[in-house]
From TrEMBL:
PANTHER family: IST1 FAMILY MEMBER, REGULATOR OF VPS4 ACTIVITY IN THE MVB PATHWAY PROTEIN. It comes from Coptis chinensis. This is Uncharacterized protein. One of its GO terms (biological process) is protein transport. The lineage of its organism: Eukaryota, Viridiplantae, Streptophyta, Embryophyta, Tracheophyta. It comes from the Eukaryota. InterPro entries: Ist1, IST1-like.
């Protein structure tokens, strides 16, 4: 008998397990999306610096920082 069975009974326990799995899948998808955004923005920053647009690159770096922090929060939940 696991914790869910003791607290909620079998029917609610199985539903909770399904919901937890769905949430974990959704969080993984969000993490992958954030990671791809960060990769793309990094490439954009490199190109902006090569082209001499340092001001725009700095704003993109701020976006990278925010996206990385958001991605780390998602990882903490997985």
């Amino acid at each position: 008998m696991n914790m869910f069975e003791v607290l909620f009974g079998w029917r609610k326990a199985s539903r909770c397990k399904k919901l937890i799995r769905l949430v974990q899948c959704r969080l993984k998808l969000l993490k992958n999306k954030r990671d791809s955004i960060v990769r793309q923005v990094r490439q954009d920053v490199v190109q902006l610096i090569k082209d001499g647009h340092e001001d725009c690159a700095l704003s993109r770096i701020d976006q990278i920082y925010k996206d990385q922090n958001a991605a780390e929060c998602v990882v903490a939940w997985i």
